[in-house]
Specification:
The complex is a heterodimer of chains A (about 110) and B (about 120). Chain A is mostly beta strands. Helix content of chain A is about 0%, strand content about 60%. Chain A contains no helices and 11 strands. In chain A, the strands form 2 sheets. In chain A, strands 2, 4, 5, 9, 10 and 11 form a 6-stranded mixed β-sheet that branches. In chain A, strands 1-3-8-7-6 form a 5-stranded antiparallel β-sheet, with no helix packed on it. In chain A, a hairpin with a 5-residue loop joins strand 9 and strand 10. Chain A is globular and about 40 Å long. Chain A starts with a strand and ends with a strand. Chain B is about 0% helix and about 50% strand. Chain B has no helices and 11 strands. In chain B, strands 2, 4, 5, 6, 9, 10 and 11 form a 7-stranded mixed β-sheet that branches. A 4-stranded antiparallel β-sheet of chain B has the order 1-3-8-7, with no helix packed on it. In chain B, a hairpin with a 7-residue loop joins strand 9 and strand 10. Chain B starts with a strand and ends with a strand. The chains are: A mainly beta (about 110), B mainly beta (about 120).
Chain lengths: ~110, ~120
């Protein structure tokens, strides 16, 4: 059974710092991995999608990597800003075509 | 970018009322749509998956007669909470994707409060 773990559960850093969020999964048989952010009381915003054949994807200050063989993905946020404060979720698309979710990392960027 | 519009964003109604939530994909074909429920400070819980024109597949423990899902077109799915009771109060989020190689996009959610 696929399990997705996100570390840390919470992170607080000063504005301007670069940071890394981690996601690990137990079954490497995935179609893709997706990173989302969720603001309080809101739905989810898709940030990056990495196909199983890809190693990384970039969008602006965000860079996501995927090492399928080791079951790991990282989300790198450069030059963090207070507006980046949110809960970040990773999810893998498994063999049942459904997303399996991590519990999220709650990120706070202090001005 | 791809947008999923969910309406209404907030509903307050009396116990016994049926509530319909709409989910529309605005600029892509929603071949598959998903309905989730989220409790405070918890992860998303998948309720059901539907493919356009087919009956929804419900997750274990989700009452299909309680949560009616219709996915009659490639851009619209509806979730009807029938005879809602206070325990149905929650945050409901819809999601949609075209193919498995495309991102899954989410609506902004509907906060349902049953008095």
């Amino acid at each position: 059974k696929q399990e997705v773990t996100q570390i840390p559960a919470a992170l607080s850093v000063p504005e301007g710092e670069n940071l890394v969020l981690n996601c690990s999964f137990t079954d490497s048989a995935i179609y893709n991995l997706q990173w989302f952010r969720q603001d309080p009381g809101k739905g989810l915003t898709s940030l990056l999608l990495i196909q199983s054949s890809q190693r990384e994807q970039t969008s602006g200050r965000l860079n996501a990597s995927l090492d399928k063989s080791s079951g790991r993905s990282t989300l790198y946020i450069a030059a963090s800003q207070p507006g980046d404060s949110a809960t970040y979720l990773c999810a893998v698309l498994g063999s049942n075509y459904q997303l399996i979710w991590g519990a999220g990392t709650k990120l706070i960027i202090k001005p | 970018g791809a947008v999923v519009s969910q309406h209404p964003s907030w509903v307050i109604c009396k116990s016994g009322t049926s509530v319909k939530i709409e989910c529309r994909s605005l600029d892509f074909q929603a071949t598959t749509m998903f309905w989730y429920r989220q409790f405070p400070k918890q992860s998303l819980m998948l309720m059901a998956t539907s493919n356009e024109g087919s009956k929804a597949t419900y997750e274990q423990g989700v009452e299909k007669d309680k949560f009616l899902i219709n996915h009659a077109s490639l851009t619209l799915s509806t979730l009807t909470v029938t005879s809602a009771h206070p325990e149905d109060s929650s945050f409901y989020i819809c999601s949609a994707r075209d193919t498995i190689n495309q991102p899954q996009h989410f609506g902004d959610g509907t906060r349902l409060s049953i008095l």
